[in-house]
UniProtKB/TrEMBL annotation:
The lineage of its organism: Bacteria, Pseudomonadati, Pseudomonadota, Betaproteobacteria, Burkholderiales. One of its GO terms (molecular function) is porin activity. This is Porin Gram-negative type. Homotrimer. It holds the Pfam family Porin_4. Coiled coil: none annotated. Residues 7-343 form the Porin domain. It is found in: Cell outer membrane. GO terms for cellular component: cell outer membrane; pore complex. It comes from Paraburkholderia phymatum (strain DSM 17167 / CIP 108236 / LMG 21445 / STM815) (Burkholderia phymatum). One of its GO terms (biological process) is monoatomic ion transport. It is a multi-pass membrane protein.
Length: 376
Protein backbone atom coordinates (compact mmCIF):
# COMPACT_ATOMS: atom_id res chain seq x y z
CA UNK A 1 0.00 0.00 0.00
CA UNK A 2 2.84 2.40 0.84
CA UNK A 3 4.49 1.96 -2.56
CA UNK A 4 1.17 2.32 -4.33
CA UNK A 5 0.58 5.66 -2.67
CA UNK A 6 4.05 6.86 -3.67
CA UNK A 7 3.43 5.85 -7.28
CA UNK A 8 0.11 7.70 -7.30
CA UNK A 9 1.79 10.80 -5.88
CA UNK A 10 4.49 10.73 -8.56
CA UNK A 11 1.92 10.30 -11.32
CA UNK A 12 -0.05 13.26 -10.00
CA UNK A 13 3.06 15.40 -9.86
CA UNK A 14 4.02 14.91 -13.51
CA UNK A 15 0.61 14.47 -15.08
CA UNK A 16 -0.36 17.62 -16.96
CA UNK A 17 -4.11 17.00 -16.87
CA UNK A 18 -4.60 15.14 -13.61
CA UNK A 19 -6.26 18.09 -11.86
CA UNK A 20 -7.82 21.18 -13.37
CA UNK A 21 -6.16 23.49 -10.86
CA UNK A 22 -2.66 22.09 -11.53
CA UNK A 23 -0.26 22.58 -14.44
CA UNK A 24 3.10 21.07 -15.37
CA UNK A 25 5.25 22.33 -18.25
CA UNK A 26 8.16 20.46 -19.82
CA UNK A 27 10.67 22.82 -21.45
CA UNK A 28 14.22 22.96 -22.73
CA UNK A 29 16.97 24.52 -24.83
CA UNK A 30 19.28 22.80 -27.33
CA UNK A 31 22.19 25.02 -28.35
CA UNK A 32 25.58 24.37 -29.87
CA UNK A 33 27.80 25.19 -32.86
CA UNK A 34 31.27 25.00 -34.37
CA UNK A 35 33.91 27.19 -32.73
CA UNK A 36 37.34 28.50 -33.71
CA UNK A 37 39.72 29.75 -30.98
CA UNK A 38 43.17 31.21 -31.64
CA UNK A 39 46.10 30.87 -29.21
CA UNK A 40 44.29 28.04 -27.46
CA UNK A 41 47.40 27.00 -25.52
CA UNK A 42 50.68 28.42 -24.27
CA UNK A 43 52.52 27.81 -27.59
CA UNK A 44 49.90 29.59 -29.71
CA UNK A 45 48.08 26.72 -31.41
CA UNK A 46 44.48 27.21 -32.53
CA UNK A 47 41.57 24.80 -32.18
CA UNK A 48 38.38 24.10 -34.14
CA UNK A 49 35.82 22.27 -32.04
CA UNK A 50 32.28 21.85 -30.83
CA UNK A 51 32.32 23.57 -27.43
CA UNK A 52 31.40 21.51 -24.42
CA UNK A 53 29.32 23.97 -22.46
CA UNK A 54 27.32 26.60 -24.35
CA UNK A 55 26.60 28.66 -27.45
CA UNK A 56 24.14 31.51 -26.93
CA UNK A 57 22.38 29.72 -24.07
CA UNK A 58 23.37 26.67 -22.01
CA UNK A 59 21.47 23.55 -23.07
CA UNK A 60 18.99 22.24 -20.53
CA UNK A 61 15.69 20.49 -19.98
CA UNK A 62 13.31 20.84 -17.09
CA UNK A 63 9.82 20.74 -15.70
CA UNK A 64 8.00 23.48 -13.83
CA UNK A 65 4.61 23.29 -12.25
CA UNK A 66 2.07 25.05 -10.08
CA UNK A 67 -1.00 24.02 -8.10
CA UNK A 68 -3.67 26.56 -7.19
CA UNK A 69 -4.31 26.25 -3.46
CA UNK A 70 -6.96 28.96 -3.36
CA UNK A 71 -6.94 32.49 -2.00
CA UNK A 72 -4.17 33.54 -4.40
CA UNK A 73 -1.76 30.94 -3.00
CA UNK A 74 0.08 28.44 -5.24
CA UNK A 75 2.47 25.56 -4.70
CA UNK A 76 5.32 25.76 -7.24
CA UNK A 77 8.27 23.60 -8.23
CA UNK A 78 11.11 23.57 -10.78
CA UNK A 79 13.55 20.79 -11.63
CA UNK A 80 16.06 21.70 -14.35
CA UNK A 81 18.95 19.66 -15.72
CA UNK A 82 21.91 21.08 -17.64
CA UNK A 83 23.70 18.94 -20.22
CA UNK A 84 26.27 19.23 -22.97
CA UNK A 85 25.28 18.40 -26.55
CA UNK A 86 28.89 17.60 -27.44
CA UNK A 87 28.85 14.36 -25.46
CA UNK A 88 25.40 14.15 -23.93
CA UNK A 89 26.84 14.34 -20.43
CA UNK A 90 25.29 16.19 -17.49
CA UNK A 91 26.56 19.61 -16.50
CA UNK A 92 27.05 21.18 -13.07
CA UNK A 93 29.38 18.44 -11.86
CA UNK A 94 27.22 15.57 -13.14
CA UNK A 95 24.14 16.47 -11.10
CA UNK A 96 20.77 15.22 -12.33
CA UNK A 97 19.09 18.59 -11.69
CA UNK A 98 22.16 20.80 -11.36
CA UNK A 99 20.64 24.01 -12.69
CA UNK A 100 17.60 24.18 -10.40
CA UNK A 101 15.74 21.90 -8.02
CA UNK A 102 13.26 23.75 -5.83
CA UNK A 103 9.79 23.70 -4.33
CA UNK A 104 7.84 26.38 -2.50
CA UNK A 105 4.84 28.63 -2.14
CA UNK A 106 3.90 31.71 -4.16
CA UNK A 107 1.30 34.39 -3.47
CA UNK A 108 0.62 38.09 -3.81
CA UNK A 109 3.37 38.65 -1.26
CA UNK A 110 6.00 36.93 -3.46
CA UNK A 111 7.57 33.46 -3.57
CA UNK A 112 9.33 31.48 -0.86
CA UNK A 113 11.28 28.51 -2.25
CA UNK A 114 13.62 25.80 -0.96
CA UNK A 115 16.34 23.79 -2.70
CA UNK A 116 19.11 24.38 -5.22
CA UNK A 117 18.46 27.71 -6.91
CA UNK A 118 19.87 30.96 -8.25
CA UNK A 119 21.32 33.59 -5.96
CA UNK A 120 20.27 37.21 -6.29
CA UNK A 121 23.51 37.96 -8.19
CA UNK A 122 22.02 36.10 -11.16
CA UNK A 123 18.67 37.88 -11.09
CA UNK A 124 20.20 41.33 -10.66
CA UNK A 125 22.38 40.83 -13.74
CA UNK A 126 19.69 39.36 -16.00
CA UNK A 127 18.40 42.53 -17.71
CA UNK A 128 21.48 44.78 -17.86
CA UNK A 129 23.90 42.15 -19.21
CA UNK A 130 23.02 42.19 -22.93
CA UNK A 131 24.72 38.95 -24.04
CA UNK A 132 23.86 37.01 -20.89
CA UNK A 133 25.32 33.48 -20.55
CA UNK A 134 26.72 33.54 -24.09
CA UNK A 135 29.94 31.62 -24.81
CA UNK A 136 31.70 34.98 -25.36
CA UNK A 137 29.89 36.81 -22.59
CA UNK A 138 30.63 37.95 -19.06
CA UNK A 139 31.29 34.36 -17.94
CA UNK A 140 34.62 34.43 -19.79
CA UNK A 141 35.93 36.93 -17.23
CA UNK A 142 34.01 35.78 -14.14
CA UNK A 143 32.54 32.29 -14.48
CA UNK A 144 30.56 32.67 -11.25
CA UNK A 145 28.16 35.28 -12.60
CA UNK A 146 26.16 33.18 -15.10
CA UNK A 147 26.41 30.21 -12.70
CA UNK A 148 25.36 31.97 -9.49
CA UNK A 149 23.36 29.24 -7.79
CA UNK A 150 23.71 27.39 -4.50
CA UNK A 151 22.64 24.19 -2.74
CA UNK A 152 20.56 24.00 0.46
CA UNK A 153 19.07 27.42 -0.17
CA UNK A 154 16.03 29.29 1.12
CA UNK A 155 15.03 32.11 -1.24
CA UNK A 156 12.44 34.88 -1.24
CA UNK A 157 11.57 37.13 -4.18
CA UNK A 158 8.66 39.54 -4.53
CA UNK A 159 7.63 42.34 -6.90
CA UNK A 160 5.75 45.43 -5.79
CA UNK A 161 4.91 48.43 -8.00
CA UNK A 162 7.92 47.92 -10.27
CA UNK A 163 10.32 47.13 -7.43
CA UNK A 164 11.68 43.61 -6.99
CA UNK A 165 13.25 42.59 -3.69
CA UNK A 166 14.92 39.28 -3.01
CA UNK A 167 17.23 37.40 -0.69
CA UNK A 168 18.76 33.93 -0.37
CA UNK A 169 20.39 31.99 2.45
CA UNK A 170 22.39 28.81 1.82
CA UNK A 171 23.39 26.45 4.61
CA UNK A 172 26.04 24.84 2.37
CA UNK A 173 26.52 26.29 -1.06
CA UNK A 174 28.22 23.58 -3.15
CA UNK A 175 28.78 19.89 -2.49
CA UNK A 176 30.10 19.03 -5.98
CA UNK A 177 32.56 21.81 -6.68
CA UNK A 178 31.62 22.77 -10.24
CA UNK A 179 27.97 23.69 -9.94
CA UNK A 180 28.21 26.96 -8.03
CA UNK A 181 31.35 28.68 -9.22
CA UNK A 182 33.56 26.75 -11.66
CA UNK A 183 36.95 25.96 -10.22
CA UNK A 184 36.08 27.28 -6.79
CA UNK A 185 36.16 23.99 -4.89
CA UNK A 186 33.63 22.12 -2.81
CA UNK A 187 32.06 23.63 0.26
CA UNK A 188 29.34 21.22 1.28
CA UNK A 189 27.87 22.74 4.42
CA UNK A 190 28.00 23.46 8.09
CA UNK A 191 29.71 21.33 10.69
CA UNK A 192 28.52 21.00 14.31
CA UNK A 193 29.50 24.07 16.28
CA UNK A 194 30.20 26.26 13.23
CA UNK A 195 27.22 27.90 11.57
CA UNK A 196 29.39 29.94 9.18
CA UNK A 197 31.24 27.23 7.27
CA UNK A 198 30.24 27.24 3.57
CA UNK A 199 27.41 29.68 4.23
CA UNK A 200 26.24 31.95 1.41
CA UNK A 201 23.72 34.74 1.40
CA UNK A 202 22.62 37.30 -1.16
CA UNK A 203 20.22 40.22 -1.41
CA UNK A 204 18.83 42.29 -4.29
CA UNK A 205 16.87 45.48 -4.93
CA UNK A 206 15.71 46.07 -8.49
CA UNK A 207 13.42 48.53 -10.28
CA UNK A 208 11.96 48.05 -13.77
CA UNK A 209 10.11 50.85 -15.51
CA UNK A 210 8.67 51.28 -19.00
CA UNK A 211 11.91 52.50 -20.56
CA UNK A 212 14.63 51.77 -18.02
CA UNK A 213 15.66 49.67 -15.05
CA UNK A 214 18.31 49.63 -12.32
CA UNK A 215 19.49 46.96 -9.91
CA UNK A 216 21.96 46.29 -7.12
CA UNK A 217 22.89 43.05 -5.36
CA UNK A 218 25.30 41.70 -2.77
CA UNK A 219 26.50 38.09 -2.59
CA UNK A 220 28.76 36.70 0.16
CA UNK A 221 30.29 33.23 0.36
CA UNK A 222 32.06 32.10 3.55
CA UNK A 223 35.05 29.79 3.52
CA UNK A 224 35.24 26.16 4.55
CA UNK A 225 36.93 22.84 3.93
CA UNK A 226 38.22 22.60 0.32
CA UNK A 227 36.83 26.03 -0.65
CA UNK A 228 38.97 28.17 -2.95
CA UNK A 229 38.82 31.51 -4.75
CA UNK A 230 39.45 31.59 -8.50
CA UNK A 231 39.79 34.88 -10.41
CA UNK A 232 39.82 33.01 -13.76
CA UNK A 233 42.86 35.00 -14.95
CA UNK A 234 45.26 32.05 -15.20
CA UNK A 235 46.70 32.57 -11.70
CA UNK A 236 46.34 29.55 -9.42
CA UNK A 237 43.23 29.63 -7.18
CA UNK A 238 43.94 29.97 -3.47
CA UNK A 239 42.25 28.46 -0.43
CA UNK A 240 39.60 30.25 1.64
CA UNK A 241 39.35 27.46 4.19
CA UNK A 242 38.70 29.50 7.32
CA UNK A 243 35.09 30.24 8.20
CA UNK A 244 36.10 33.86 8.74
CA UNK A 245 37.29 33.98 5.12
CA UNK A 246 34.84 35.31 2.57
CA UNK A 247 34.35 35.89 -1.13
CA UNK A 248 31.93 38.77 -1.73
CA UNK A 249 30.56 40.50 -4.84
CA UNK A 250 28.72 43.81 -4.94
CA UNK A 251 27.14 44.92 -8.19
CA UNK A 252 25.21 47.85 -9.62
CA UNK A 253 23.76 48.04 -13.11
CA UNK A 254 21.06 49.49 -15.32
CA UNK A 255 19.48 49.38 -18.78
CA UNK A 256 17.65 51.76 -21.08
CA UNK A 257 15.26 51.19 -23.99
CA UNK A 258 15.20 54.08 -26.46
CA UNK A 259 14.38 54.31 -30.20
CA UNK A 260 14.34 50.53 -30.54
CA UNK A 261 17.78 50.10 -28.98
CA UNK A 262 18.42 48.48 -25.62
CA UNK A 263 21.57 49.63 -23.82
CA UNK A 264 22.79 47.99 -20.63
CA UNK A 265 25.84 48.22 -18.44
CA UNK A 266 27.17 47.89 -14.94
CA UNK A 267 29.93 47.11 -12.47
CA UNK A 268 30.77 44.08 -10.34
CA UNK A 269 33.20 44.59 -7.47
CA UNK A 270 34.69 41.49 -5.84
CA UNK A 271 36.58 41.26 -2.53
CA UNK A 272 38.16 38.04 -1.29
CA UNK A 273 39.43 37.99 2.29
CA UNK A 274 41.63 35.00 3.13
CA UNK A 275 43.53 34.19 6.31
CA UNK A 276 45.87 31.99 4.26
CA UNK A 277 48.64 32.77 1.74
CA UNK A 278 46.14 34.21 -0.75
CA UNK A 279 45.59 37.30 1.36
CA UNK A 280 43.06 39.94 0.36
CA UNK A 281 42.34 40.38 -3.36
CA UNK A 282 39.99 42.85 -5.04
CA UNK A 283 38.72 43.05 -8.59
CA UNK A 284 36.42 45.27 -10.64
CA UNK A 285 34.51 44.16 -13.73
CA UNK A 286 32.82 46.73 -15.99
CA UNK A 287 30.53 45.97 -18.94
CA UNK A 288 28.52 47.94 -21.51
CA UNK A 289 26.40 46.52 -24.32
CA UNK A 290 23.62 47.26 -26.78
CA UNK A 291 21.01 45.32 -28.78
CA UNK A 292 19.04 46.34 -31.89
CA UNK A 293 16.49 44.42 -33.96
CA UNK A 294 17.24 45.28 -37.59
CA UNK A 295 14.08 43.39 -38.54
CA UNK A 296 11.68 41.39 -36.36
CA UNK A 297 13.76 38.30 -37.23
CA UNK A 298 17.32 39.71 -37.10
CA UNK A 299 18.98 40.95 -33.91
CA UNK A 300 22.44 42.51 -33.66
CA UNK A 301 24.02 42.91 -30.23
CA UNK A 302 27.39 43.30 -28.65
CA UNK A 303 29.15 44.02 -25.40
CA UNK A 304 32.50 45.29 -24.14
CA UNK A 305 34.09 44.23 -20.85
CA UNK A 306 37.02 45.38 -18.71
CA UNK A 307 38.32 43.48 -15.69
CA UNK A 308 41.04 44.56 -13.24
CA UNK A 309 42.41 42.28 -10.50
CA UNK A 310 44.50 44.64 -8.44
CA UNK A 311 46.62 42.43 -6.18
CA UNK A 312 47.30 39.89 -8.96
CA UNK A 313 48.21 42.65 -11.44
CA UNK A 314 45.94 41.05 -14.04
CA UNK A 315 43.86 43.05 -16.51
CA UNK A 316 41.91 42.26 -19.63
CA UNK A 317 39.56 43.88 -22.12
CA UNK A 318 37.10 41.87 -24.19
CA UNK A 319 34.76 42.83 -27.04
CA UNK A 320 32.01 40.56 -28.37
CA UNK A 321 29.69 41.01 -31.37
CA UNK A 322 26.75 38.70 -32.21
CA UNK A 323 24.07 38.36 -34.89
CA UNK A 324 21.00 36.16 -34.38
CA UNK A 325 18.48 35.25 -37.09
CA UNK A 326 15.18 33.77 -35.93
CA UNK A 327 13.92 31.09 -38.30
CA UNK A 328 10.83 30.69 -36.13
CA UNK A 329 9.67 31.45 -32.60
CA UNK A 330 11.62 28.42 -31.39
CA UNK A 331 14.63 28.11 -33.70
CA UNK A 332 17.46 30.55 -34.40
CA UNK A 333 20.89 30.53 -36.01
CA UNK A 334 23.67 32.83 -34.82
CA UNK A 335 27.23 33.95 -35.39
CA UNK A 336 29.39 35.37 -32.61
CA UNK A 337 32.91 36.84 -32.78
CA UNK A 338 34.97 38.07 -29.82
CA UNK A 339 38.51 39.07 -28.88
CA UNK A 340 40.21 39.37 -25.50
CA UNK A 341 43.31 41.49 -24.89
CA UNK A 342 45.32 40.23 -21.88
CA UNK A 343 47.80 42.20 -19.82
CA UNK A 344 51.31 40.89 -19.14
CA UNK A 345 50.22 38.58 -16.29
CA UNK A 346 46.65 37.70 -17.34
CA UNK A 347 45.61 34.53 -19.19
CA UNK A 348 41.87 35.03 -19.66
CA UNK A 349 40.27 32.86 -22.33
CA UNK A 350 37.71 34.48 -24.63
CA UNK A 351 35.63 31.29 -24.58
CA UNK A 352 33.45 30.56 -21.57
CA UNK A 353 33.12 27.11 -23.15
CA UNK A 354 36.49 26.30 -21.54
CA UNK A 355 38.22 23.01 -22.26
CA UNK A 356 41.88 23.72 -22.89
CA UNK A 357 41.76 27.15 -24.52
CA UNK A 358 44.00 29.15 -22.16
CA UNK A 359 46.58 31.36 -23.92
CA UNK A 360 50.02 32.27 -22.65
CA UNK A 361 50.20 35.22 -20.26
CA UNK A 362 49.87 38.54 -22.06
CA UNK A 363 48.59 36.99 -25.29
CA UNK A 364 45.25 37.96 -26.80
CA UNK A 365 42.76 35.46 -28.12
CA UNK A 366 40.17 35.48 -30.92
CA UNK A 367 37.06 33.32 -30.87
CA UNK A 368 34.30 32.76 -33.42
CA UNK A 369 31.30 30.46 -33.37
CA UNK A 370 28.41 29.70 -35.74
CA UNK A 371 25.58 27.77 -34.13
CA UNK A 372 21.92 26.89 -33.90
CA UNK A 373 19.50 27.09 -30.98
CA UNK A 374 16.13 25.42 -30.53
CA UNK A 375 13.76 25.84 -27.60
CA UNK A 376 10.86 23.61 -26.67
Amino acid sequence: MKYGRLAALAAGLFGTTAFAQSSVTLYGVLDTGIEYVSHANAVGDHVVRMPGITGELPSRWGARGAEDLGGGLKAVFIVESGFNLKGGDSGQGGRLFGRQALVGLEGRWGALTFGRQYSMSYWALADADILGPDIYGIGALDAFLPNARSDSTVAYKGKFYGFTVGATWSFGRDSTGTGNSPGQGTCAGQVPGDVNQCREWSAMLKYDGTYFGVATAYDEQRGGTNAAANFFDGITPFAISGTGDKDARLQANGYLNVAGVKVGGGWVGRHVESSGPGGDVRSSLFYLGAQYYVTPTLAIDGEAYRVIVEQQDARATMASLRATYFLSKRTAVYCNVAHVWNSARARYSVSAGGGGTTPAAGVGQLGAIAGVRHTF
